[in-house]
Specification:
The protein has 351 residues and is α/β, with parallel strands linked by helices. It has 16 helices and 7 strands. It has 3 domains: 87 residues, Potassium Channel Kv1.1, Chain A; 129 residues; 106 residues, no CATH class. The strands form 2 sheets. The chain has a 5-stranded mixed beta sheet with strand order 1-3-2-5-4. Strand 4 and strand 5 form a beta hairpin. The chain starts with 6 loop residues before the first helix and ends in a 16-residue tail after the last helix. The chain binds zinc ion. The site of zinc ion (ZN) has 11 residues, from helix 16. InterPro entries: SKP1/BTB/POZ_sf (IPR011333). It comes from Hypholoma sublateritium (strain FD-334 SS-4). This is BTB domain-containing protein.
Amino acid sequence: MSNETPPAKRKRTEDPAAEDAETTKRSARFWFDDGNVVLQAGNTQFRVHRSHLVLHSEIMKDCFSCPQPDGVPAVEGCPLVHLPDSVQDIENLCALLYGLYHIDVQGIDTSYLGTMIRMGRKYDISFFKISALKCLRDLFPRTLEEWDVSHLEVKKIILRSPPFLFEVVNMAYENHIPSILPAAFLSMYKLYNLGTLTSGLKLKSNLPGEPDQRIMLEPLALIDCLNGRTSMGSLTQWMLDDIGLGTWNLDGDAIYAVPCYDCTDKPMCSKGLTELFAALVRLGVNSRQIQIPKTFLEICDTYRLLEEEGNPFCDPCMLVLQEIFDKNRIAMWDEFPANLPSWRDTKDFDT
Ligand SMILES: [Zn+2]
């Protein structure tokens, strides 16, 4: 019976190295005839130049500076280095090292961004880390003023790459980049409702017959995301407090910030105040996207408080309300990181 076993099958079973050789393939893009080292990730090999790797990576420099022992596996005379990274990461790494892709905010690609952060940290490639972090920090800045501008850029990126924000937040958790989280979460709250945040973003497949995909926040990211989202209600709560809802003088009369002392049209401003209270209640946190208005006038506009002939308040009262709004919007931003329990008081990996 043993003679009936096909020889080819026996060979594969008894010789795993030979089986590996059969399944190994060369990278279509990164196989240079004059390359002098072969990197292998999964079953894909890349024949590249050691000088390129050594020039950018301190780890590779140390690695290649050690004398190679006899019997090191080789491919076409080049030493073979097995890497535990994904094929995509090594493909991206080569594209970046050979200058085929340059990262910038306008053409940002999360596949490359992820490779730059992961490989940059793992192999100590400074220009990967510096470029990727700059891009992320430009898009997700530390000040509210900058976020007002950068959020518009993030919206544009999402139009061409819908999972972008989910990928960036997950990347920040996997790689210790908490400084970008407040801005990234604020953009998420503004763009996605509670259902999408908790159950993930559905991504339509471009291929016929392929099922749709769904990208989710990682568990810790989701917990922080929901904690932070709840705190967004503080903006309207603090505004209501400062306008004076629930404050009375000794005679039992309600004291409100408007009509203010310099008010020029008390009947109009009193009417506007009633409508403003209703608008602030609607602006509060619910299951829909959160507005995070930029100016007090934006609240008036959104909730149609504006009269045909102009503002719902006289100029002095508008000024008082704008100041209350600005003060509490900044306070909301300043308080926000304290509502991300996983990252309280922690720093980015490079600081
Ligand atoms: Zn007034």
